[in-house]
Amino acid sequence: MAEEILTAETRLVGKEAARLDAVAKVRGQARYADDLSFPGMLFVKAIRADRPHARIITLDLSWAERHPRVVCVVTPEDIPGENVVPVIYRDMPLLAVGVVRYVGEPLALIGAETPEAAEEAAALAQVTYEDLPAVLDPLEAIREGAPQVAVPEAAEAGNIFTHMVIRKGDAERGFAEADVIVEGEYRTGYQEHAYLEPQGVIAVPEEGGMAIYGTLQCPFYVQNAVAAVLGLPLSKVRVVPTATGGGFGGKEDVPSQLAAMAAVVAAKSGRPAKLVYDRAEDIISTSKRHPGVIRYRTGTKRDGTLVAVEIEFYYNAGAYQTLSSAVLWRALVHAPGPYRIPHVKVDAYSVATNTVPCGAFRGFGSPQVIFAHESQMDELAGRLGMDPLELRRKNALREGDETATGQVLTESVGLPQAIERAAELCGWKGLRREVDEFNRQKKFRRRGVGISTVMYGVGMGAKAPLLDKAGAYLKLEADGSVTVAVGNTEMGQGATTVLAQIAAETLGVKLSDVQLAPVDTSRVPDSGPTVASRTTTVAGAAVLDAARKLRARVEAAARGFFGVDEVEISDSQVWPSGEPGKAVPLSEVAHWMWVHNWDLGATGWAEGAPVDWDPDTGLGKAYFVYAYACHIAEVEVDLLTGEVHVRRFWAVHDSGRIVNPALARGQVAGGIAQGIGYALMEELKSEGGRIVAPSFTAYHIPTSMDVPAEFVIEFVEAPYSGGPYGAKGLGEVPLMAAHAAVANAVSQATGGRLREYPALPERVLELVEGA
Amino acid sequence: MRKSGPVEIVRPKDLREASSLVREGGMPLAGGTDVFVRVRKGLWDPPFLVYIGELPQLRGIEPREGGVEVGAAVTHAELLRSPLAAQLPVLRLALSTIGAPAIREMGTIGGNVANASPAGDSLIPLYLLEARVNLVGPEGERSLPMEDFILGPGKTALRPGEIIRSLWIPFPEGKPLPYFRKVGRRRALVIAVASLGALFWLRDGVVEKARLALGSVAPTVLRPREVEKALLGKPLDPGLLRPIADELSRLVNPISDIRATAAYRRRVAGNLLLDAAARLPRA
Amino acid sequence: MRIKFVFNGREIEVETHPGRRLIDLLRADLGLTGTKEGCGEGECGACTVLVDGKPRLSCLTAAIQAEGREVLTIEGLRENGGLHPIQRAFVETAGVQCGFCTPGFIMATYALLKENPDPTPEEVRAWLSGNLCRCTGYQQIVEAVLLAAKYLRGDALRVTRNEKTP
User: Fold this and answer.
1) Contact A670/C34, CB-based, under 8 Å?
2) Do B1 and A700 touch (CB under 8 A)?
3) In chain A, fewer beta carbons within 10 Å around the N or the C end?
4) Cα–Cα distance for residue pair A249/A179, rounded to 1 Å
5) Beta carbons of A120 and B5 less than 8 Å apart
6) In the predicted model, what is the mean pLDDT of residues C70-76?
7) Which overall architecture, per CATH, does domain B56-170 show?
């Protein structure tokens, strides 16, 4: 990216444009998965295992088949292609054969004329099992003699799906040099995405192939999965995302499973087939954040300089690999935190158990280890008698520093500025005094202030650089309006608006003249998955590339149109340079181009900057750039009940140039709320491998009363030369930072040390009474 | 497994017809906030539902005999808006924590009582105010005190064909200090993990009379009368009440469930008495 | 059975099964899908509609409970053919992200502002506590409600933006 673009005056980038999709959404006109219907459509219901680990002895569907409104029943033999849900590995069958490995695993499918009939028929299925020993805990699953859960071809050893390491410097020597060492074990549980729109897809047979409509993040993943189960070439499967009611990673790989199920029913019956989960089925059968057992040992010099960290952690991956190896890799790279540490040793394990497969969730494996590293920082500060902010300030990565994987950060490191700005906004020293004063006066209430600092590797990183690419196609219409086609989805994060701003800025047109084309894999370029906080950075760069090409062509045409050597374009007006009085609307030039047979389309392409990584040492350039954040939370704890309320919150982010501040603030506030939920209340209980009470009655996410009334959100913008107008990723970072600030605040208020999420009132009361 | 087929709903024209439909096995339906959820989940499987939510005989809020008579199908929101309820601050405190506004517009006082949940938020003030439950059935009308009406979790003294017609809530003497607090994982839309409601009559800075009612710490809402007596003559000073709070913790009989352990509920039951003392004025 | 009610300002009569949920009547029978089902058990508020001006969860309401009443859904909310001021405010404050909870929030807001035209931020938060949102953290939703209140009281001009809302 040229230097000038980072410093250029912008007309639209950096401005609070309204979302392109907002009007349809406030009118109730946006169409989500369950809002679509097709003539002759069937309703699909999966018959699911109710054993965590068992051999299937018989599967009798004869009663289900006799239901008068059942049109078709699908068993593994009916799958025309491969019986697989392809993600990174191919160990997960679409429908279980022989053995079931978790409660909720699909066995067969019903297609019926009404949703009620599909449910009734599914309840008539009779399955007999021979129970096998089940293992539900990752630490037990790696013991010798544990029941084998993992499909052997997908595992490195026994139930260890994946083991990854970082070996930097010499950890033993580092600890020998350390003056202060802290050590701790941290545990985290499931986190449920709780997107408000449950999973849903519709498969519609069409000439020679299959169309899929659904609520999803990664249309190209779904295309691949449906082609595999139907045995069709990719060209005969097209995927059209509907309006998507939240994703947060939960609609990254899971929609592939739903779409494949609906597709086999549609293929067998020849009729459209809709599969929409209710909340209970969604909670039981879809991915969640991996529970973790995390052990840290961290050493510093007496002055607080970090010298060594040794980390070992185990993530409960569930019964199949799905995305766990990728999740584990991000966790590995992020485990040491945004600090300069010469000696680093990390061992990361993902382990198979007889539980529902875990997967992608905002932060992608990093929040668990962030809880641990930020807790360690506060414990160190306590032992050193140092201000926890000062300890972070001292060790925070700066430009020119080396990360824990040995990557030298050559540009765009806004962490020090983020820390300074957050401290300034909350008035750190005064705030801590104020809290102390409050605590002296109150008998049954205590306040606490917590801080966290995080880094986030933008994009897929060195483990999957093949996915860090994006295509874009721009078309100037004959009336001067512009259509932008990319394959990234809008799930609420605002991507379409931001991409339109980049296109409009670069082309010199009004934002209202730009429209994003509805995504359809048969018509838009492959711009990779909508994950990893990569869309603004990578797809944005592809849009920028296409827009520059198209602009150059429009300028060339306009020079001919005006008969001059130089022209200018801005705000959908075109004029000869220096003669703004002669300006004509862009529509005139566009029409002129159309009449004179100019090519009005342009394609763009972008790839992430090169990365590399050595799996043996865990060293290398893990990501092409990092985003950073510093969060500060003030909580109040009721000492009589253990209830915690987050009173105030300050969040400062470096995500490079912010394209749309209003939308960016929304991302941050939403991530903070999810982080508050993760730290304080979100708990999914299971017994014997069954999730207990799979509903919003038992799984509590924050309400409007549970978030602070005072949120202060700011951005320090350290521009990234590889991103459009200097932008880096943002989406995942707020959640990653928020929970740890809350957890540290709870620990500070109670005088104890929170080592397990969530900090339910009960757990907090124990901290209070144990302190 | 979710109940899929819709359950039949019958709409009786008057109370008499409602009563005979209920006698036939129909389950009364008023606000639907609980009945619909349980029927859909297949937890309840009544042959049909009897919609009594709009029967005029169940709908009024009237002053009567030194108190207020509230029709069973009056919603929580209607009661909250009623000027008569303004004279019962502890009732308002409890009702305003039920669910969220839409739930309060739908759910009825009679439904909450019939549900007989130990976590029922409206039950706490009804126990504190010593309300009576007026029933109507095939054998005529009768009236029971709350404590005799509710027998256990989900269990009431309703006889076949009987319907709750109204609640009679007496105005307390004097101006007792009201307290209500519900403990949960979040600050709204939550079922109580433990709750305490209280009325304190103070004279010369000490408790002259006290009533306490606790939710979610026993099979029914609990009136710990020993503790109410032990409070007499004591100032509302949390520093002095620890032994009585501990006594309260010993008295309760909670269970462990998905929301909390018994030990936590026991601890918090006593602590809430200290919280009441800390929050209320001492004179 | 047939039921008669005023739907989005127009009296209608529909044939339905006694026991059908109001949400199914709206979405499947009447084909208006703006009302959303997020949980089916009254715990998320996405299905909020107004019945006689009061918020109700249409997933826990029987269709027959609409008999003789006025039902208002997101599709019935407009002003002079354009956006209702509440809708405008949600657009302008970016109080919308994925949008799935938005119709429920807007209907709940409508009921709030009828009852309390000048709510405090705390009152807004308390009133909306039955409507879950997983995207916004509620900040910009609260801002939207306060802005809508201003619009409806007539003491604010439309916020000017760099780009006009479409």
Assistant:
1) no
2) no
3) C
4) 41
5) yes
6) 98
7) 2-Layer Sandwich (3.30)
**CATH number of the domain to which A39 belongs:** 3.90.1170.50
Q: Which of B247, B205, B255, B217 is nearest to B229 (CA)?
A: B247
A442 at interface of B, judged by CB pairs closer than 8 A? no
pLDDT in tens, C89-136: 999 999 999 999 999 999 999 999 999 999 999 999 999 999 999 999
- Decide: residue A500, CB within 10 A, 0-12 exposed, 13-18 middle, 19+ buried: buried
CB neighbour list of residue B52: distance below 8 Å, 6 or more residues apart: B12, B15, B18, B28, B29, B30, B58, B72, B73, B163
Query: Domain residues of chain B, as ranges?
Result: 9-51, 56-170, 184-279
Cα–Cα distance between A744 and A739 in angstroms, integer?
9
Of the candidates C4, C148, C34, the one whose C-alpha atom is nearest the C-alpha of residue C90 is: C148
- pLDDT at B40 (0 to 100): 87
Which residues of chain C does A19 touch, with a Cβ-Cβ cutoff of 8 Å? 91, 94, 96
Verify that C72 and C6 share a domain, yes or no. yes
| pLDDT of C17 | 86
Q: Looking at A539, A574, A607, which one is the last position of a domain?
A: A607
B184-226 pLDDT, tens digit per residue, is: 999 999 999 999 999 999 999 999 999 999 999 999 999 999 9
Residue A95: the pLDDT is 98
Question: What is the model's pLDDT at position C81?
Answer: 82
pLDDT at site A247: 98
The answer to whether ipTM exceeds 0.85 is yes
Range of the domain at C91: 85-153
Q: Collapsing DSSP states into helix, strand and coil, what is residue A163?
A: strand
Residue numbers in chain A where pLDDT is lower than 50 = 1
At residue A1, the pLDDT reads: 47
Pull the structure tokens for residue B146. 């709350």
For residue range B13-64, what is the model confidence (pLDDT) as tens digits?
999 999 999 999 999 999 999 999 999 888 899 999 999 999 999 999 999 9
Residues from chain B contacting residue C127 (CB–CB below 8 Å)? 101
Scanning the structure block, which residue is given the tokens 């080592």?
A755
| Same-domain pairing of C63 and C92 | no
Q: Which of C77, C81, C40, C83 is nearest to C61 (CA)?
A: C40
| Residues spanned by the domain of A64 | 35-133+205-269
Q: What is the pLDDT of residues B238-267, one digit of tens each?
A: 999 999 999 999 999 999 999 999 999 999
Q: Is residue A440 part of a domain?
A: yes
Cβ neighbours of B39 in C, within 8 Å: none
Question: Which of C74, C91, C135, C142 to substitute to test the interface with A, most A CBs within 10 Å?
Answer: C135
CB C144 within 8 A of CB C166: no
Cα of B27 to nearest chain C Cα, Å: 13
Would you call the peptide bond into B46 cis, given omega within 30 degrees of 0 as the criterion? no
- List phi, psi (to 5°) of A691: -75, 125
pLDDT at C79: 82
Number of separate domains in chain A: 3
Write the CATH number for A500. Answer: 3.30.365.10
**Whether residue C72 sits in one domain with residue C89:** no
| CATH code for the domain defined by B184-279 | 3.30.390.50
Round to whole Å and give the CA distance between A311 and A730: 26
Decide if pLDDT at B5 tops 90: no
pLDDT of res. B3: 45
Q: Where residue C149 sits, what CATH number does that domain have?
A: 1.10.150.120
Distance (Å, rounded) from C-alpha A44 to C-alpha A279?
A: 16
B9·C130 Cβ contact <8 A = no
Given a cut of 50, whether residue C165 has pLDDT beyond it is no
Q: Are residues A642 and A735 in the same domain?
A: yes
Q: How far apart are CA A194 and CA A282, in angstroms?
A: 9
Q: Report how many Cβ contacts below 8 Å link chain A to chain C.
A: 201
In this structure, what DSSP letter does residue C26 have?
I
